Amino acid sequence: MLVTIENGRAVRVAGDPAHPFTQGFLCAKVNRYVERTYHADRLTQPLRRAGAKGRGEFVPISWDDALGDIAARLTEIARSVDGPQAILPYSYAGTMGLVQGSSMDRRFFHLLGASKLDRTICSMAGTVGMRMTVGANIGADAEGIPESDLVLLWGTNTLTSNPHLWPFVLEARRRGAPILAIDPLRSRTAQQCDEWIPIRPGTDAALALGIMHVLFAESLVDRRYLDDYTLGEDRLRARVAEYPPERVAGITGVPAAQIVDLAQRYGRARAAFIRINYGLQRHAGGGMAVRTIACLPAITGHWRRPGGGVQLSTSANFTFDKATVERPDLSPPVRTINMIRLGEALTQPDAGVGGPPVRALVVYNSNPAAVAPDRSAVLRGLARPDLFTVVLEHFQTDTADWADIVLPATTQLEHWDLHLAYGHHYVTLNQPSIAPVGDAKPNSEIFRRLAQRMGIDHPAMRDDDCTLIRQALEGGGRNLHGVTFDALVERGWMRLAVPRPYLPFAEGGFQTPSGKCEFVSERLEALGLDPVPTYTPPYESTERAPELAQRFPLTLISSPAHQFLNSTFVNIDALRRGAREPELVIHPDDAAPRGIAPGSRVVVHNDRGEFLATARVEDNVRHGTVWAPSVWWGKFTADGRNANHTTSQRETDLGHGPVFYDNLVEVTPAD
């Protein structure tokens, strides 16, 4: 991102035209980053709560007073009978960089002896699924897509969540490759594809098994690749024999003939590229779904050629020295609390988290009052009068409304940071472009000052941000060879030291214990899980909960609106106007028997809660599925609620991830 400065003020942001992957453009959201940085509601000084929790009433205070209040409360809790484990950090990816996201904060909480947070809310199910199959969350290089002769966009709304991939997809199409979207929604992306395959939510593993059934039955396989580079073919063949196209059609809603056609095209392709994303892993069998899909290119040998393979993320190729940056060695043995079960941790401490009750919550880079599942439980927890809550933020979010102290943090334009990528292989250095707005401070500096105020005098708390960046790079693995701080200062970004074309598994080399693509995983078996790819029905489905499905027959998907990045950017006026209002897309065949007309107000509800939305009656969603573009702040909705009033705190099969889209609801007219 290039920032234009005039008289010390940012006036424009733009993509870097020299960047090989992002190619000079930004997404619709980040295009508004100047507006976001100088927004009238930007937090510019510390605040102390002046009214009841949740009312959002605050008075300005000095940094000295704010740090004094926080230090006194955290010290009191740490020295109490509950001990420092009663303090819980809560963060995720509101700031994506290594320095402002996971450096001094980790050191501070480790030295304090606070509880640890299992940061699972986005990608852990799929990450573990990839690890158990290919060894790490790495995959095909998107820059090879123009060489593909078939592109499957599986569970990904590329134009919204990964727009820089799209030019590579278009080039593949120009060269003759068909582009297929497999998705319960006819998203912006699916509308631009050559085919839309409207799959039933949560059944992606079954479709993959059905494709494998045809591949093996019709010998559309790479015999040498299977023999040399895979483990457990016989057991996989036995499993997929259980999933003929006719059975898979009944599970997925995709016609048997279409499953056969898809499998044949995939098997006959020379280099098929499968782009999967995080939506398809947000259900009970999400980790196994990713694992199952990840087996496909090993059966056909598509890993051999540029443009072939599967990609969930490229993140594991960025081998930053996180241990040196985060210093986990400084922490005593403490409990770990799963972030998606925050509501339970705050309201039911005896239900599974163990240890003392959470008495202090320090939130940064996240907005759990909007994005965490089972929002009603989260809000009940935040309302506890005995809970001391600190929030580091850019704006007074839903979570900040419940805080005792709010601290103003800097944005990407105002601090140093180091960034990896999910979809390409370029390291990015984030240099400050402007001075901090108002009295905002970087997260890293806030934790340095708080440590000093609490008497935590350890050398690890004295490193400045540039030192942290150097540590991350200098101790990194071979992929960072030649990627130095000084070079990044000069160039801004650098490609990892990986080959071009990057073919990670062309000749095996999988990072699994066997060194092969593991169709059978001893590690999964040791965990008491099925070692062979399989289909796990959603928790909330006719297969596993028929009575619940009868009461709540619609599956709700609540992926981000095009204008939002989860709950970020919701308060930017132009973007919020683009998203209009909380909406629900419902198929005409589901709307008619419920008396729901286009534009009418509806209530989306289940046993966990409800929220209001305006109905959009369209065939852009498969029958039996509804879509509520999210994630709205409660303060911007008519009823103060959002889709997470209906989502649960249950976990995926692998990685303890969330099941946001494993969510049965009913929809009724609001009147």
Any low-confidence stretches, pLDDT <50, length ≥5? none
Q: Which CATH class of the largest domain applies here?
A: Alpha Beta
Count of DSSP H/I helices: 26
Query: How many domains?
Result: 4
Classification by helices and strands: alpha/beta
Cα shape: globular
Through-space gap between termini: 47 Å
Strand order of the largest sheet: 4-3-16-15-14-5
Mean pLDDT reading = 97
CA gyration radius, whole angstroms: 25 Å
Proper CATH architecture of the largest domain: 3-Layer(aba) Sandwich
Biggest β-sheet strands, sense, barrel = 6 strands, mixed
- Write down how many β-strands occur, each being a DSSP E stretch of 2 or more residues: 26
Give the % helix.
Answer: 25-40%
Strand content range: 15-25%
CATH topology tier name of the largest domain: Rossmann fold
Structure description:
This protein has 671 residues and is an alpha/beta fold. It folds into four domains: 1-38, no CATH class; 41-118 and 330-494, Rossmann fold (3-Layer(aba) Sandwich), CATH 3.40.50.740; 140-312 and 504-526, Dimethylsulfoxide Reductase, domain 2, CATH 3.40.228.10; 546-669, Barwin-like endoglucanases (Beta Barrel). It is built from 26 helices and 26 strands. A hairpin with a 2-residue loop joins strand 1 (2-6) and strand 2 (9-14). The strands form seven sheets. Strands 4-3-16-15-14-5 form a six-stranded mixed β-sheet, with helices on one face.
